[in-house]
Design a protein that fits this description.
By secondary structure, the chain is an alpha+beta fold. The protein is built from twelve helices and eight strands. It has a four-stranded mixed sheet. Bound molecules: flavin-adenine dinucleotide (FAD). Flavin-adenine dinucleotide binds near residues 164, 368 and 369.
Length: about 400
């Protein structure tokens, strides 16, 4: 992508840098780089940071101003992401609403829904959780069984979701429900917006490998939401969900190489401290990790370019970026433990993991959420290489 900085873009970049330098201070600065997209380390501090960004109107800057955005251009959005990652600011606690649900609502929501929900996301007043996966319906999402029936002017929802990130903090859930069991699997699903705080919704945290409970199970027992809380058409939720997953697979990775670079820098420091840097193997691995971060950078730029020019290759490019970044991050996590040597096996009191230990553990999930590596490879094989489709469950009534 050609990101030659025109004078207005340079001015914008200066504005972002100045704001970050003035506001990423004190506790926020001490917590640079804290958290991951799917992690709730230092949650309260990250939430406070999101509110700081909101006060400066630096959340969702690509959204129209009427919803709290800045109507920023694609280049400005990319520049912001790059500067943000370069400053190593904390991961945003409310990324579910900002990066996943919000863009989906912008693309598919009604004008009333956009007016109702988007400003509360940019003001960090309402948090969102994604209720797609169910036990037995992850990769094969179209087999989902959570049902919604219209009862007067309300939907009544029964079923179970699992792995809902940020579910314990969510005020609202965007939930895929089967609204027409007689229709073919992909055609009887709707995306409903459901208030989380009600007697019919039971949220149960799941403890993860990092010792936190960022995701949860959610049980719906006669949960209710208003009849107009459907995004897109009733029974047309499949294409809405695919739009949401496309966002999850792609644009959230655009500045990832800079995150990786901070980790590689930290790992290089650790290798110097333990003397590992004298090993030829370690030096080669560190150089390789650096080169992989550069490839991720170019993958991100290629993806941005396909999005900007709408050339129809965005889905394939997003899959490539996701597979490459998640595989690389695992490798960085493992290498970081070698760089730390024996100290890598020690954790602080209360299972207090340091940043590199968090990378090792958190990166295990990156090849799973947002569509597993195997599913991305299937998509690339079929849609990009034109290989035969793998056998699918019969597309009859669900
Ligand atoms: C940290 C984390 C956060 C998450 N957050 C959310 C969330 O907020 N909301 C939400 O709805 N979900 C969330 N998920 C769930 C995630 O989307 C699913 O875990 C994922 O889609 C895989 O589904 P599954 O776990 O049921 O595994 P399965 O689909 O059962 O897959 C098991 C294994 O089989 C492989 N496999 C399956 N089908 C095929 C195939 N056709 N060809 C080849 N291999 C195949 C998979 O690649 C995988 O290795 C999260 C998951 C994690 C780890």
């Amino acid at each position: 992508m050609d990101l030659a900085l025109t004078p207005p873009l340079r001015e914008f970049q200066d504005e972002v840098r100045t704001w970050l330098a003035e506001h990423l201070v004190g506790e926020f600065r001490r917590h640079r780089g804290v958290g991951f997209s799917f992690d709730d380390h230092a949650w309260d501090l990250r939430l406070a940071w999101d509110r700081e960004l909101a006060a400066g109107r630096w959340l969702c800057i690509g959204w129209p101003e009427e919803y709290g955005g800045r109507g920023a251009s694609v280049d400005e959005q990319l520049l912001f992401q790059l500067e943000y990652a370069r400053a190593d600011a904390p991961y945003r606690a409310t990324s579910q609403g900002q990066d996943l649900f919000g863009p989906t609502l912008l693309a598919f929501g009604s004008p009333e829904q956009k007016r109702r929900f988007l400003p509360k996301i940019t003001a960090v007043q309402e948090l969102w959780g994604q209720g797609f996966s169910e036990p037995g319906s992850g990769s094969d999402l179209a087999s989902l069984r959570t049902r919604a029936l219209l009862d007067g002017d309300e939907w009544v929802i029964d079923g179970q979701k699992i792995w809902t990130s940020g579910g314990v903090y969510a005020d609202w859930l965007y939930v895929l429900c089967r609204t027409n069991p007689a229709a073919p699997r992909h055609k009887g699903i709707s995306m409903l917006l459901v208030p989380a705080d009600q007697p019919g919704v039971d949220v149960r945290p799941i403890r993860n490998i990092m010792g936190t409970s960022e995701f949860c199970e959610i049980f719906f027992n006669g949960a209710r939401t208003a009849a107009d809380m459907v995004v897109g058409e009733v029974d047309g939720g499949w294409s809405v969900a695919m739009g949401a997953l496309g966002t999850e697979r792609g644009t959230t990775l655009l500045a990832e190489h800079l995150r990786f670079q901070h980790e590689i820098d930290e790992m290089t420091t650790a290798a110097r401290e333990t003397g590992q840097h004298r090993s030829a193997m370690m030096r080669a691995e560190l150089a390789h990790a650096w080169a992989l971060a550069r490839i991720i950078e170019w993958n991100g730029r290629r993806l941005m370019s396909t999005l900007k020019h709408d050339d129809g290759n965005a889905a394939a490019q997003a899959s490539i970026s996701k597979v490459f970044a998640s595989t690389t991050h695992r490798r960085i996590g493992e290498l970081a433990m070698q760089a730390k040597g024996a100290a890598s096996e020690l954790v602080g009191a209360d299972y207090d993991l340091d940043r590199l230990q968090q990378v090792l553990l958190a990166s295990r999930a990156e090849s799973i959420y947002g569509g597993t590596t195997q599913i991305q490879l299937n998509l690339l094989a079929e849609r990009t290489l034109g290989l035969p489709r793998e056998p699918r469950p019969k597309d009859g009534p669900a």
